[in-house]
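Pasting as-is:
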Amino acid sequence: MEDFVKSEWEALCRRYSSDEELIGQLWRELKKAYTAKDRHYHNFDHIAYMLELADRYRVGSPQFDLLLFAIFYHDIVYKATHSDNEAQSALVAEERLRQLCIPEAHLMKVEEMIIATKTHLTQEDNLTNLLLDLDLAILGADEARYDRYSQGVRKEYSIYPDLIYKPGRRKVLQHFLSHKQIYITPAFQAALEDKARANLQRELEG
């Protein structure tokens, strides 16, 4: 899994920079973040799954690379007890992509995309909406993969006892189920909507 993510990262960066030392340095930072001992779901498995589905559901956009950069950086900062993870991740992305000489307007776009993962509200552009659906794709995965996700999230919130965690988790599940559509893009609605609802309902009743 890590080898796949690394190869995708290197291929992406080499489209913008020939500085192998910098590409390696940025990779090591990503690896340190996503393989931290408290990362039980927001790790390289999550990134790899998003990258695989991004290729499968690829949209025709000259800015598709920005989606890939947003995938790599959207959870680089993640603490279960913090509420500003997305904003902090966006700032890291801006600083690092500037080192890769990504144009300023594109930096701002990646920042906006990452920040949008906080609320998962429908956006005006298809690329950001695809990122949001990719981030929630796990909800529509097969039961075994979904269960690993829910168990991983529980471990990331292990600081909280069941008395606090379970009501909060129930609220999250009900929030998703209350939406007319969990997914924004027609492709994800067709492929994963029904399965996502079944998984959420199953966990809610479990």
